[in-house]
Amino acid sequence: MTETTEKKKRTQIPRQKMPEQDPKVRAKNFDEVPFGYTPELAKLEASRCLQCKKPTCIEGCPVSIDIPAFLDLILQGDFLGAARKLKEMNSLPAVCGRVCPQEDQCEKVCILGKKGEPVAIGRLERFAADYEMAHGEFIMPPKAPPTGKNVAVVGAGPAGLTLAGDLIKKGHQVTIFEALHKTGGVLVYGIPEFRLPKAIVQAEVDYLEKTGVEVRTNMVIGKIYTVDELMANGYNAVFLGTGAGLPTFMNIPGENFNGVYSANEYLTRSNLMKAYLFPRYDTPIAKGKKVAVLGGGNVAMDSARTALRLGADDVYIVYRRSKKELPARIEEVHHAEEEGVQFHFLTLPVEILGNEDGWVCGMKCQRMELGEPDESGRRRPIPVPGSEFTLEVDMVVVAIGTGANPLVPSTTPDLQTNKWGYIVADPETGTTSKKGVYAGGDIVTGSATVILAMGAGRKAAEAIHKYLTE
Ligand SMILES: Cc1cc2nc3c(=O)[nH]c(=O)nc-3n(C[C@H](O)[C@H](O)[C@H](O)COP(=O)(O)OP(=O)(O)OC[C@H]3O[C@@H](n4cnc5c(N)ncnc54)[C@H](O)[C@@H]3O)c2cc1C
Ligand code: SF4
């Protein structure tokens, strides 16, 4: 067969679906939604890759994974080799394979997507990483000789974990200080089990610990030690990867009624404090029957799907723009729809109503229409006069975004922040206004993505290494 016929044959293979739980069943459990590819499906999907001479997919990947190479290893049946190839550039492939917005990154620019459907790069990344977790054994990565330098990492989210993994390999001693009792950041307290099983995040952290990274949980920096105290205690550099976990509200009347949650609190109670495992864990959480979730991002979808699983009869996403502008990943919107989440588009909540006992009993809303694009490039929602209506609800989850936690900046006087409270840091190096202190991830950019936080951790690791050794 000539190369052209071979390529043509490959393009005729349809993109392989990932088997997943039936929507009716999964809407009532917290088990992971997709089961993942079987080895046969993975090989078939990998065989669709054209092994392009100029692989556009690599350009679309924020950490430049050699995508054709790992796909070819899958095709050859060398699944462990594929996982190792991924790990050359990405220390958390099992996480990224599940939560990265691939449709906007590597898959968006895959050459096959021009005429048909792109290679399912994300699903294959997940497959290879899961295979390694199930069948691989721990191999100590090559490590440079000890440099005698100590680095403190504040925050165990994707930015801090990636940085720690890189610096330990370069021979530095690394200690992670995490405020919560669990490591993983948003991966454990925000993203629910049905989308990202916690055992996967834990396995990645266990791996880091085996390589020599010290992890200290229940350590709130800014309270137990300030950044200056860390430096006085022998840390030669400090990385701040504290995320953007401060809840924000709409500032509409009625937000103080019982039954109104920030998405952060709601998801943390369910995920991290295991309220979803009642009665094994008796963490208090309201279980509304008619729940409104305000917002349209991944956080809103996660909250809505959690509410369904905790027993709500009706869950509404209330979003002031149209479906086209929803910022959540398409796959997650699709999953939410399949599970029965109802969408109120072009709807703005204006007041939360409460009963005489102080509990939510409804929400006043106003219909919107879209006008000219605003500074964000999206069409601005404009209220339609006289279109107010009341939505009958007994619980409201506010998922409209988060802000920067002020604790570390407020206890580190010479650390520059911007007008929103985010730490000012060089995007290429993570360098802050304070000597020896670096920052990256959501605490610099505002709420973004796992892979961008990891990329920031990687760049800062490089810069810290230079700072400590040159
Ligand atoms: C519900 C939800 C769903 C999401 N879904 C997706 C998705 O599908 N795909 C995607 O790519 N992104 C998603 N994101 C965004 C993504 O998770 C974040 O961009 C990413 O986790 C940021 O990483 P980070 O390391 O900067 O911070 P974080 O993950 O926020 O981690 C920061 C860590 O620092 C700790 N910390 C804070 N202050 C201190 C202190 N003073 N001392 C010690 N420790 C401290 C925190 O406890 C936390 O563990 C989602 C976010 C949320 C909230
Ligand atoms: S662009 Fe698509 S087809 Fe080409 S190498 Fe990358 S994944 Fe394969």
Task: Please provide a written account of the structure.
The chain has 470 residues and is an alpha/beta fold. 34% of the residues lie in helices and 16% in strands. It is built from 18 helices and 16 strands. The protein has helices at 3-11, 23-26, 39-46, 56-60, 67-75, 79-89, 93-99, 121-135, 158-169, 186-189, 198-210, 227-232, 263-270, 298-309, 330-339, 407-410, 442-445, 450-469, and strands at residues 150-154, 173-177, 214-216, 237-240, 246-247, 260-262, 290-294, 314-318, 342-344, 347-354, 360-373, 379-383, 389-391, 395-398, 402-403, 437-439. Strands 3-2-1-4-16 form a five-stranded parallel β-sheet. A five-stranded parallel β-sheet has the order 6-14-7-8-9. Strands 10, 11, 12 and 13 form a four-stranded antiparallel β-sheet that branches. α5 (67-75) crosses α8 (121-135), α6 (79-89) packs across α8 and α14 runs parallel beside α15. The chain is globular and about 65 Å long. The model has no long low-confidence stretch (mean pLDDT 94). Iron/sulfur cluster (SF4) binds at residues 49-52, 55-57, 67-68, 110-112, 119, 121.
